């Protein structure tokens, strides 16, 4: 089938098989969803698709060397119950497989967002400079930014929760946390490296700083002096605070132990 301007395909639920090369010539194909009753997909049938959703109730049998998927694929969405099976079947595409059991949308060709609760399921973009999350996002799911690398990351206002290991292995020159943030997982930033951490809210979360594998500078933009729960890592060389609160920080319990690091902004 050759339709160069075709971008999205909705197939009927009654469909049971897709012949080889079925959509091979659809060079602009962005997204195709494979219905639940499909039991067979021929080789190169989905070759041009960037995003593929496999809704079949059982894993599709893919003969070795006859994959229906091409190298242009960015993500393959599969049911969580079949994740391990598809990781085995599509070994060479394992980094592109995402388990999703809810309706989702793709924003800016980089963010997978749940339509159910507006949580970020995964970031998969490639940012040469900075990342700013879309304003619609209200929470960050587990592993959403795993191993991501960018110059900076700005988490938009409206985000209230960050899940476990959300930033595991990631690396940024700077991260800005929103004032709306209410909860972070115990290991949300485990093995994450950052040069500058900016906190816009009035809360310093328990053990936040020690989660990072490396952190150099901290900027606190709170309107009051927050309670310091936990320690400041030895790698931190500077803590920036509002000039109007500098004396209060120096005099407060917890922060006074780091008075030599405190600077006004």
Task: Pick out the low-confidence regions.
Answer: none
Q: Name the shape in a single word.
A: elongated
Radius of gyration: 23 Å
* Amount of helix: under 10%
Q: In which order are the strands of the major sheet placed?
A: 11-13-15-17-18-19-20
Structural class: mainly beta
What is the tally of beta strands? 20
CA distance, first residue to last residue: 61 Å
Largest sheet, in brief, is:
7 strands, parallel
Average the pLDDT over all residues and give the rounded result.
90
Secondary-structure element string:
EEEEEEHEEEEEEEEEEEHEEHE
**Residues in β-strands, percent:** 25-35%
Number of helices: 3
Would you summarize the structure shown here?
This protein is mostly beta strands and 265 residues long. Helices cover 6% and strands 29% of the residues. The N and C termini lie far apart (61 Å).
Give structural attributes.
265 residues, mainly beta, six-stranded mixed beta sheet, 3 helices
What does this protein look like?
This protein is mainly beta and 265 residues long. 6% of the residues lie in helices and 29% in strands. It is built from 3 helices and 20 strands. The chain has helices at residues 83-89, 208-211, 246-251, and strands spanning 8-10, 17-18, 31-34, 40-41, 51-54, 75-78, 97-99, 104-107, 111-114, 119-123, 130-132, 139-140, 149-154, 161-162, 171-177, 183-184, 193-199, 214-220, 238-241, 262-264. The strands form 4 sheets. The chain has a 7-stranded parallel sheet. It has a 6-stranded mixed sheet with strand order 8-9-10-12-14-16, with no helix packed on it. The longest helix has 7 residues, at 83-89. The termini are far apart. The relative contact order is 0.07. The model has no long low-confidence stretch (mean pLDDT 90).
